[in-house]
Specification:
Elements (H helix, E strand, L loop, with lengths): L15 H14 L7 H13 L7 H9 L4 E2 L4 E2 L2 H21 L1
Antiparallel strand pairs: 1-2
Helix pairs in contact: 1-2, 1-3
Amino acid sequence: MTNLDHDGLPGVFAHPALIAVTALVKVVRDGGNPDGPEMFDALCERSTLAGVKPCSAVFDRAAEMVGIPYSMELDIYCSRDTRDEARRQYGNLYRNARERC
């Protein structure tokens, strides 16, 4: 069952900010580390409960909000510092490869 509104679009519970906040609350409540792997697991759980597929665009926005954005250059979810460094080092290679496709 998914959380869709009358237009077939993700409903209010599928908003990335709500997914991010509820995941953060779950991690803190469970005594986990918001900077640890528990955060990604909580995001997956909360997004699924909201009817949002993990690794979708809505999920990516929620992950960005809690500090683990998706890096297209590395094809992983990582810290902002790691993502920014990858963009500096590999950004042109990635853009050039996409243009050839």
